[in-house]
């Protein structure tokens, strides 16, 4: 076995030598093999004239080769403090194992192009800012978690909290939120905590990044701030630093606006004096890099591909069962901050395998789904306002006794799966001329599909009842887009009537919820103002195996993944006829 390993290793070394020789020939360079190899690599080659080293891991070519330059103090774009050159995102590179000669040459060319970025150009300054976050984390020994919305801040003074013996700090917009943030993330509830100052300062656009190093002088930091801020910020900063103190432990978060977002980096300023003196005159203050862990709404929303224009939209969600639970979660992830939810049902162990809520919900003293969803969502998402509409009688029927409530929303979503209640809401909205878009979402049984129906839009014709009204009389019938034949009962029960349910999976609910939230976002952003129906189609094997019959509508469309169509006005619809 040892002999076989040695033979394999020898063959691998020969292959790498041949690769490097090809690079030397094609690019007129002189990489030679080194005896000593960096930790984590199996081979290292250096060109002493160029000052570049190339290293290979045992997984090459599945891992790209790494290029290094000698470690220097100054910051250079796309070069780590270790001297490693960041080439490109390896996950975006398709590696052709049959052409690794060209792969090595391509990596070398990329490394050279990084080294040739001229420090006197706009490209150099732009790339330094673009990489600022990665540079700063390399020199920061401590961090500050912030939910302060720095995207709108010019100059802010906030209270931050830290715990004795820790290297983490926490800051939010109010003292109450700061304490809650620290309590949630610190995990040091038994340790003594301290509240002190944190100042957020926006620098002028185009400001250079401060030189990256492990420690700064207080005068050096003050000069950098004064040089890169406008007069109003200078005055406020001077007023703050003129306050007399004996002990200083505070944070300064600086923000540089750029074309690719705000660059945030922080400093921990610490020191003490034997007498009360202005902070600006205190000798021996230590300023060390503080890494800013941003958790403010706008930053997280934009990184997640969500939309901050949804921030002030008010949504009512009726029903937070299997479909509704996933709708609520995805709305929050897409940037919705104000959500009212109503559901009369309790959460039980039978819900576990198709609901957003999990085992933790069963251990909670609460049982109502809406209340549990409120607690879960507010624990997972910062600065959101969930109202579980915890009335004496938390039912949709009771809620509709005061129909004026409906007009206060930007969007109403029903995941009740109850046609009678959905039709009642449809009538209330139309009869009172409440121009609030209304979405109904529900699954069909056994994974056969699901529907999302949008009505009551600004320019939409037809309504929900049009779909339930016979095409040649005003009689109500099963929805004409139903995927199953009329007159079948799909409910199962394993514990009496109270335990009855319609069989479908969590995957079905998530599918319907995703279509619902995508449609909801289009409506809230003003991109869609016409009534429509979205139907997704699943497989019919399971439902047929249970002896049920699919509808003609399903049979005609089952080979399609999804259908989106308008809602035609039904001349026999009592709601539309008025």
General shape = globular
What's the overall average pLDDT, rounded? 87
Which structural class should the secondary elements be placed in? alpha/beta
What CATH calls the topology of the largest domain is Rossmann fold
Q: CATH-wise, what's the superfamily of the largest domain? A: NAD(P)-binding Rossmann-like Domain
Number of helices: 18
Helix content: 25-40%
Rounded radius of gyration (Å)? 31 Å
| Poorly predicted sequence stretches spanning 5 or more consecutive residues | 1-8, 494-500
Number of strands: 22
Number of domains: 3
| Largest sheet geometry | 8 strands, mixed
Strand order of the largest sheet: 15-14-13-16-17-18-21-22
Distance between the termini: 87 Å
Any idea what the CATH architecture of the largest domain is?
3-Layer(aba) Sandwich
Overall CATH class of the largest domain: Alpha Beta
The percentage of residues in β strands lies in: 15-25%
Description:
The chain is of the alpha/beta class and 578 residues long. It has three domains: 2-116, Ubiquitin Conjugating Enzyme (Roll); 130-295, no CATH class; 304-481 and 504-537 and 560-577, NAD(P)-binding Rossmann-like Domain (Rossmann fold, 3-Layer(aba) Sandwich). The chain is 32% helix and 23% strand. It has helices at 2-27, 100-115, 122-130, 132-139, 175-186, 218-227, 231-241, 297-303, 322-333, 359-362, 369-380, 396-399, 419-431, 464-468, 506-524, 541-545, 552-557, 574-577; strands spanning 32-33, 43-47, 52-56, 66-68, 142-146, 155-163, 168-171, 193-202, 216-217, 244-258, 261-278, 286-294, 314-318, 338-342, 385-387, 411-414, 438-443, 449-455, 492-493, 500-501, 532-537, 562-565. The strands form four sheets. Strands 15-14-13-16-17-18-21-22 form an eight-stranded mixed sheet, covered by helices on one side. Strands 5-7-6-8-10-11-12 form a seven-stranded mixed barrel, surrounded by four helices. A hairpin with a 4-residue loop joins strand 2 and strand 3. The protein is globular.
